[in-house]
Amino acid sequence: MSEHQAQFEDLDASDLYFSIIAARYNGELIDVLIQRAVDTLVEHGANPENIDINRVPGSNEIPYLAGMHGL
Prior knowledge:
Blueprint: E1 18-23, H1 27-43, E2 51-56, H2 62-68
Parallel strand pairs: 1-2
């Protein structure tokens, strides 16, 4: 594990848009990960309305949906 911690104090997400694509498989675990990601984005100024969350049946569908969204 790295001795260096990433520094995020200077991040400003207030004018950015985000897309989170997650599997429905292992829903309880994934729900926690999504919420932590959203909380972190909001902590750094992201507008919750600018965070798009999409769920797919499993991890195999994530690249397909990302491609559909041009990500």
